[in-house]
Design goal:
The chain has 451 residues and is mostly helical. 77% of the residues lie in helices and 0% in strands. The protein contains 22 helices and no strands.
């Protein structure tokens, strides 16, 4: 199939996927905001004076809010649909930017970051589900990687604009994120899976026809009805997650969370400009942050192309190996080079190596796997559990990162992250299956080791 034929066949699915993942762009800019904002808030002419400890709470409190996001998702995603659940996240994001724009104490920042966390947790609970349900088997992996592509565009936007505009101006500019998302996504279809589950078969057929760009969707719709009926015949409650038959599914989720969070991506990105202030190169810290953002974006474009060709498992293994090496070299540069001073080139290069390999698999392909490994009856609970566990792990990593950075030195957290990467590499090798080109039903059999 040529590129033109591929685009002609799947263009509506790509359009809906990109529009939906603009929600990721929206919430990731709230997360990236701390990198350019922290130096301004802790400067002598700070618009809202804060201490380093208050700064660490400001960064990490978003992870606390993210714990509540999956609860919101669980309450809304099956009752009101994936589309409304995603659109609703513009409310806490908009309120958060308003609080930052008008607030004059650290309490305003805490509340704003907490609201951001709720939206962040909700989006990351719902978006893998939505993408997994609207995408054909042939492009589901690529659609899943769009989560990371849009996330990296969000980081790049904040890193590029944030250091060069006034603190409050940045908040007002950032409100373009919710506006862009709602304008683009409000026209996209609801998930046919959700509509079938609500017995709205006419709308499900209409949406499926639009997504597949054909009127001949009777067979797929029949299979969808059968799959969802089988799922609904099973007990639908959060306790179903702990059914022994889903043990392998939960183990895969645990491994994905461990590899994504315990290798330190969020603290590194959240404190990017602060970390770069400890590295001596010809570039300024804010310039190094922009380079990081560009490298991130370029890196995650490759799995979008390769995930449905090479497969999930090879990319995850390669990604974790490269991440571990980058973190180890970065730790060495800080330990040997007096906080990165005399070996600044090694510290900066190893961080870029970390970012490249993280984007190649851990930060992108993981979401493709997550969108595939749970059946419909517990998918909402599973993605919510994934986001909650990730949020708790992220809070611990971010909070401890600031403490070790100040009290011990940057070499320690990077060394710990590299050890976690080595452990994660072993876990992926033994426990993560390949799901490339398989239907959702086939993937369930693979995970349960029936085929």
């Amino acid at each position: 199939m040529t590129i033109y034929q591929h685009w002609t066949k799947y263009c509506h699915e790509y359009m809906a996927s990109v529009a939906a993942t603009l929600s990721v762009f929206m919430v990731v800019t709230t997360n990236a905001w701390s990198s350019p904002a922290l130096p301004k808030l802790m400067s002598d002419d700070s618009p809202v004076p804060i201490t380093p400890d208050e700064g660490s709470w400001m960064v990490s409190i978003q992870a606390i809010g993210a714990v509540f996001g999956p609860i919101v998702a669980t309450l809304t995603v099956d009752n009101f649909g994936r589309k409304l659940a995603l659109l609703g996240t513009i409310i806490p994001v908009t309120l958060g930017w308003v609080l930052i724009g008008v607030g004059d104490t650290v309490v305003y920042l805490y509340v704003a970051r907490f609201l951001f966390g709720i939206a962040y947790g909700t989006v990351y609970s719902v978006i893998p589900m939505y993408l997994g349900e609207i995408s054909s088997d042939a492009i589901r992996g690529t659609a899943g990687t769009l989560i990371t592509v849009l996330a990296k565009i969000g980081f790049l936007a904040m890193y590029s604009i944030g250091p060069y505009v006034e603190y409050r101006t940045l908040a007002w500019i950032s409100m373009a994120g919710p506006g862009l998302f709602v304008v683009c996504f409000m026209w996209m279809p609801e998930s046919p899976h959700h509509l079938v589950a609500k017995n709205n078969f006419l709308s499900a057929e209409k949406n499926l026809s639009w997504l597949r760009r054909t009127e001949y969707v009777t067979e797929e719709l029949t299979n969808l009805k059968r799959t969802i009926q089988l799922s609904q015949d099973e007990r639908e409650s959060v306790m179903e997650l702990f059914n022994p038959k889903y043990g392998n599914n939960l183990r895969i989720v645990g491994i994905l969370v461990f590899n994504m969070q315990m290798t330190g991506l969020l603290p590194i990105l959240g404190y990017a400009q602060t970390i770069f202030e400890k590295i001596s190169t010809d570039l300024k810290p804010e310039e190094m942050s922009i380079v990081l953002g560009v490298v991130q974006l370029v890196a995650v474009l490759f799995p979008a192309i390769l995930v449905d060709r090479l497969g999930r498992r090879p990319l995850l293994l390669l990604s974790t190996a490269g991440v571990t090496l980058g973190l180890l070299l970065c730790s060495v540069s800080f330990a040997v080079g007096n906080d990165g001073g005399s070996l600044g080139w090694l510290g900066f290069t190893s961080l870029m190596l970390f970012i490249v390999f993280n984007g190649l698999g851990l930060a992108s392909v993981s979401f493709s796997v997550l969108a595939e490994i749970f059946p419909k009856n517990i998918r909402a609970y599973a993605t919510s559990a994934f986001t909650m566990i990730s949020a708790v792990a992220a809070f611990g990593c971010v909070k401890l990162f600031q403490w070790t950075l100040d009290e011990v030195g940057p070499y320690l957290p990077f060394a710990v992250f590299s050890i976690c990467g080595a452990v994660g590499l072993v876990l992926i090798y033994f426990y993560i299956p390949e799901t490339k080109g398989r239907s959702l039903d086939e993937i369930q059999q693979i995970v349960r080791k029936k085929i």
